[in-house]
Amino acid sequence: MILTVIYCCVYATAIVPAFVANGQEVDLPSSPTVGLKSDPRSELDQQLVPEIKQQNGQSRSIAVFPTSSEKAVGPENITQDDLDLRQTFDLTNEQRQAGQPSQWLSKIFSDAMWTFVPHSKSKSKCNLQARLYQQHLSNNTHWAIRMLDASLIVPSGIIAGAGQQFGHPDQCIHTRVPLPDFRTKYCLPSAQFSPYKDLYTDFYNKRTQDWPPYDMKKNVWDFLRPRDQLIRFTRHSFSWGLCIPESCSAEDIQTSLNDTLSRAFAKHQIHIQVNLTELQCYSVSEEKVRQMPLAGYLWTCVWYALIVLSFLGTVVHYQLKNEDNQHEEKRNSQNHTKEMEPSKLEQELDSENCKLPVGSFLLPFSFHRNAHNLVSKDNKRNVAQIDILDGVKGIAIVCTLGVHREMIGFSYAKNLEYFEWSLRSINFAWLTAGLNILDTFFFISGFLLAKTFIQNLNKHKTPNFFSLIVNRLFRIYPMYLMIIGFTIWVQPYIGEGPLWKSYADTEAQVCRKYWWQNLLFISTLYTEGNDICIPSSWYLSTDFQLYLISLALIFIVTKCPTWRKHILIFMFVVAHLVPSIVIYLEQEPSMFIHSVEGLRANARDRYFRKIYVPFYMRMGPHIYGVCAAYLTDYLVKRNFKFSTLQKTTICLITFGSTIGMFYAVAFLFLVPERIFQATIWEHVVFVIPYRLVYCSTLAIGILIEHCGGYGAVSDFFCHPIWVTLGRMSYHMYLWNFLTISWDVFLAQSLTHYNLYVFMLRTIGDIGMVSLISFFTHNLLEPPVAEFRKKFLPK
């Protein structure tokens, strides 16, 4: 106290007179610590805002900025940058005076969510636990802070497309609350926001088709306003993680959020609407209640039974193999067995061993035997020609897995801007323009069907159309039924996550309702009004429909051999003209132009249902395969051989044309400058060469393989890796959509994609699907094939 009095006396008698003598103003301190040093902020204000006289005699402040050279930038030496900065200040003040918000929605949202507490109009328990949560939150109680910390409070990256922000779901549902009957629940509500018309009128103009880059000087609402889905995904909606008491229902949470956020956003002239369903909420107790039904346990028991039978079959196979060694030594002593091929000898020994009832039943289940047959390669000429088809299918299924990863994984990327850029980039044309890769399977399907008929006719055997259909059904149904059963009875109960219930429960509900359409192969005949059980199953329905059409075509040309060439040419032309007619009538593009919204909609997308999957749009490759089989048989019967120069020239032309077609698609229809400018007639004309060029490459490749071969190129396509993948392609195709969906919808955070991450995930998809398919194929297919041989007509 004494020091304070002494300081004030010295300050008043010595320091103040000195400042006054120099003409300076002095602020008297109110305490010993204030006034010893002048306030830097007040000094800066005095330097920045001196007063100047206006013409009307009034004074106003103008900015004067100190520089590094200790020179002031004032009215006499003001620069253009200073004027721009001043205009920005004036614009901000005008916006505030006009009622426009000075806060971005993240700040508005976080301020509202910091104090958010759910309430219910009908559940007192929800209201009680909400008050307890609020009370313990104010006391910084551990469990309450964990709930708050698990929720997303401040959204970020909305402009970049990060519309799904999960917070920390595991932390939420595993928070143990030391209160009676108080459990936590995690929800993922979604909200759509838009400005009032008075705030930004242009937001409500018609959907625009302007492409990035966008003007950074404009209002942010100009960027957020809706644009065509082919340009980018919506930016005026987002989802966020929320941890709340389990006693509050999804309807209670939705009502509470709408009340809280609507009031907060209305102050800033922004409309917001929150949506939430029970499919977007989950908790630990709910997961315990969600028990797998009896049918799900029966499904797993079937696989367990197959595993047991496989083990027993392998044991029997090894036992019989030891006994066969003695027979083999005895047979090797005979002259005719010395020249016998190993594969033929093994078949003969198997036939002898299968005379025993136990061996006859268990041997087809032997995992060792089935795996060996799956990866083995036969050196016979006709089998080698089938091997190259399996090799082509193996390469095609690998490419298909990459396209599926792009379609499902990329569309849920954290950095949607990168994905949207890649969809319109020439660098990714090999991915975005390569959707006709599935034409490979349609072409080979038609080729093998016709080749089977031709081989039987060459042997003077009359093919049985009914037996062909029955055998094909028994090849498709076993694994198909297992996948449908898995989707309905098993998949919803094997995982948890913010997106899992929305995905798994929805898929299960669709399959419960429409499974019969899948089994009748008519799901793609409904172009609207229903969903498809297992989106990837569209291929099976379309392929079976084309199988029946090709059977009818082959039956006609078999009965009318003199008109064969004319009928095949007519069907070839019709198959390639029908897509053009449909595209003109529907006014749709000639290929599936990807967008985030369309890929997320998947089988529900309009273009997908009306243009992409119908059999009449996919008829060209299948009929082309049938025609290629007849042409191949014609050349083989005349012992036609391609020369080395012919093969080299044809390969370079066809391969170059296929690659050129991919980039032609990108330049003509996928780059921003062309998506909306391309006319319908361009699409009508282009759809014919779009499929014709690729199928011609396949046809010429098969012709050369049957008429001389490719040499080293044939060895590459017949490599055991490709052949094995091709033989498993059916199982890989069915499992792939499921495994990628598990990766996306079981995740508790979105993936940030780049080319490296994309390739890493694709390689992981190939490895995982190959491993699963290797086991399911060896467990299921050989026993079913043995059943077909014994009980079905040949």
What's a concise summary of this model?
The protein is built from 33 helices and eleven strands. With 794 residues, the chain is mainly alpha-helical. This is Nose resistant to fluoxetine protein 6.
Key features?
33 helices, mainly alpha, 3-stranded antiparallel beta sheet, disordered N terminus, 4-stranded mixed beta sheet, 794 residues
Can you put this structure into words, describing what you see?
It is built from 33 helices and 11 strands. It is mostly helical and 794 residues long. Helix 26 (619-637) runs parallel beside helix 29 and helix 32 crosses helix 33. The chain folds into 3 domains: 105-289, no CATH class; 294-344; 385-784, no CATH class. The strands form 4 sheets. It has a 4-stranded mixed β-sheet with strand order 5-8-7-10.
Question: How do the helices and strands line up, and which of them pair or pack?
Answer:
Blueprint: H1 2-21, H2 40-48, E1 51-53, E2 59-61, E3 65-66, E4 72-73, H3 80-97, H4 105-114, H5 124-138, H6 142-150, E5 164-165, H7 169-173, E6 184-187, E7 190-195, H8 220-224, E8 237-240, E9 242-245, H9 250-266, E10 270-275, E11 281-282, H10 284-289, H11 294-332, H12 335-338, H13 342-353, H14 357-362, H15 367-375, H16 381-409, H17 416-423, H18 429-432, H19 439-458, H20 465-490, H21 500-519, H22 538-559, H23 564-586, H24 596-601, H25 606-612, H26 619-637, H27 644-670, H28 672-675, H29 680-706, H30 712-717, H31 720-727, H32 729-745, H33 755-791
Parallel strand pairs: 5-8
Antiparallel strand pairs: 1-2, 3-4, 6-9, 6-11, 7-8, 7-10
